[in-house]
Input
Amino acid sequence: MSFRLWIVVWLMTGLFLGGTALALDKEVVVPQLLETLRLEQSLSFCGEAVPLEDPEVRERMEKELLLSLWGRDQAILWLKRSTRYFPDIEAMLSEAGLPDDLKYIALAESALRPHVGSPKGAIGFWQFLPATGRLYGLTINDQIDQRRSLIASTKAAVAYFSKLHEKFGSWSLAVAGFNMGEEGLQAEILAQSVSNFYRLYLPLETQRYLFRVLSAKLILTQPELYGFHLQDGDYYPPIKFTNVELTCYEETSLTVVAEAAQTDFKRIKDLNPELRGHYLAAGTYTLAVPENTPLDFQKRFDKIHQEWSQQRQERIYIVQPGDNLSTIAEQFRVPLAAILIWNRININRPLYPGDRLIIYPDGSRIDNP
Output
């Protein structure tokens, strides 16, 4: 892309996504690229000065800031989501006595999206790998993945950051360790005889990582400077909910939970992103439900669950010789995928005569022979 075309795209993006005016007949103020890179004020991370006087460090900072500003649509979503999720993160960091700047790591890691994942298997707000998440107390299995829970994953991140800072003695190194793993970072420090993040040769992703976090901090703390002029109503409000204690004595459908909360399946899933699939295993849970959920949630749940369980018993189909999932789906006029969900089975699982399946037929119930 030529420089002239780059500038045109920059101006048009600023006009429609981040400028001070949206109408073509009004003056639009979009900052010049060079102006955005003139970081004349001192820059710090977690109270530690960033050595911008070093030309190589400044170049790395400018590169990441330019890349962040190029994705102006993404930066707008950063800003809009920050008011939804940052208050909880800020409170937990403050309570633990950790620097507020650490919140920008969640922004750089996941753009504050609970379900985002990486090719390496990292998931959630803080992009924990399964082993690291479990090490810091997160439940990660087929039913629950607390990496997707803002509160649970932030609690784990707080513990991990505390350990990393205690081990490495600086927040810049702690952040590098969070990105590449503490053992790998320790090995490089020993091999290079250098304990300054800015002078260490690390994997390229880790060399860029802190500067990507710093770019998020700059944009979030001074959005107008970079051409983002959001009004109060543009920001997403915090999610309103209340917590309830729920004991399930046997596996149940989340539709039962939703009905007890007088809401729908999607709302329960959205409020509890750590819940996987369509079912809740037996156990005791603290669940988020809409804030206007009536009292006596457990009593209401028990009643609805009993009715649901009885209905399931009435919907059992006994597999016959020659049956397969496709023929059963056709017989009952239901999607094959629905049978998989109702019975929590894999499509490749073999069926045998006498197996029992839960089927909710479309129309009149078809009795078993």
